[in-house]
Amino acid sequence: MKKPVFIIIPAHNRKSVTLKCLENLEQNGDLDRYYAIVIDDGSTDGTEAAISAMYPAVTLLRGDGNLWWTGAISKGMDYAQQKGAEFIIWLNDDCITAETTLRLLVEHSCKNPGVITGSACYFLETNTLYESGAKGRIPVMARPSEIVDVDEMSGHCVCFSTHIIENIGLPDAHRFPHYHGDSMYILKATRAGFSASILGDARIYHSGTVKSEIQDFSNLIKPNASLLQAFKQFFFNKKSLYYCPTQFFYNTEKYGFWRGVGLFSLKSIQWLVKWSWLIISQPKKQQNLDVLE
Known about the structure:
Mean pLDDT: 91
Order of helices and strands: EHHEHEHEEHEEEEEEEHHEHHHH
Strand content: 15-25%
């Protein structure tokens, strides 16, 4: 029989990536050990049909494209609770877990039910360990055999008891619809008296960009967009790390209201300068930008 552990995987329009994630879980035996839920947030690339055909034991929950990461995770957590879950695992579909990773996370969580346990994160392409958590404002990582306490961390691959959900509720999908939904939920838990740790022996391998730069979001500037439209797409689009409402709430919640407002204001100026330089330095795109509306 499967253990009352539910793996929650958000997905949207990257079928091959999601299928590779499920294939990895199957090879590791995790699909036999635990329940898996994929929240398909309105994919149009055949993700749902492919999962149904290849992994019929995986539960599929549907969204309309407006759940984003935090809404999808919350939907999966709520469903898992209703099904009697004792432990939850967040897993992003662009992460490949080592063979023992999920078992180690679950074992550590069972022994320490008040602790949110995260994995040590490596770049898939270079096998390089990177910082996936923070203690205060200091980024931290966990090397093999280490267990490092943190205040917040990435939600790439994290395990925790549903007792924590009963105490602090679900992640805040309104203020943190996509970015920071994971780290702010973990920060909320640690401030409520729970603990969070990165388990150095529980390894995952992340494909692609981890620490984004502003130029990584240049694809949000649509062809023939005006400067005003380009500005909105960068700073008021939930796909962007620089989505202003989320950044405002992140800073004010983490650092307190007035200090957070000050930090947000300074960062906003820095982002605006970088964005302006990005616009100026891309002449081909600049030619497509009409006069400010």
